[in-house]
Amino acid sequence: MSKVRPISTFSIQEFAKFAGVTVRALHHYDRLKLLSPAHRSERGYRLYCHEDLGRMERILVLRYLGLSLREIAAPLNTAVGRGAEPLTVTLARQHAALHERRDGLIASCGPLNMHNITHRTLRNPGGCSIKPS
């Protein structure tokens, strides 16, 4: 009896294109057990389904928020109440870290703005146009 490709599955190339990632990234996620394909073809090729696309979207959003793959894997791969930090706690911690980073960037803008004002004033005191001779 031969295996038939399940309906509504995607090859790794198709899935990578839909998800906006590389085939290499999908192989990496599979090795990390972060996103394993729903099915395998008769020849062992990875076949992904629509549910895999939803999980990929969650992974990409969490990566965008700055979480490492290890931080993403823990809550996604562990059943609720099995020892891993719940995703809501991870997101709250990342939210606080992003706010801290934003505040640091805003604080560093002040000295940069003063440097630009000072630099422009020294190059062009009094706002006069200085033309090269």
Jot down its keywords.
single chain; mainly alpha; Multidrug-efflux Transporter Regulator, Chain: A, Domain 2; three-stranded antiparallel beta sheet; disordered C terminus
Could you write a compact summary of the structure shown?
The chain is 59% helix and 5% strand. It has 133 residues and is mainly alpha-helical. It has one domain: Multidrug-efflux Transporter Regulator, Chain: A, Domain 2 (Orthogonal Bundle), CATH 1.10.1660.
Give helix % range: 55-70%
Number of helices: 5
Lateral strand order in the biggest sheet: 1-3-2
CATH architecture: Orthogonal Bundle
What is the subunit organization of this protein?
A: single chain
* CATH topology label: Multidrug-efflux Transporter Regulator, Chain: A, Domain 2
DSSP E strands, number: 3
Average predicted local confidence, pLDDT? 79
Gap from first CA to last CA = 88 Å
Task: Give the topology string: H per helix, E per strand.
Answer: EHHEEHHH
Structural class label: mainly alpha
Task: Describe the 3D structure.
This protein is mainly alpha-helical and 133 residues long. The protein has one domain (10-124): Orthogonal Bundle (Multidrug-efflux Transporter Regulator, Chain: A, Domain 2). It has helices at residues 12-19, 23-31, 50-64, 69-77, 87-123, and strands at residues 10-11, 39-40, 46-48. It has a three-stranded antiparallel sheet with strand order 1-3-2.
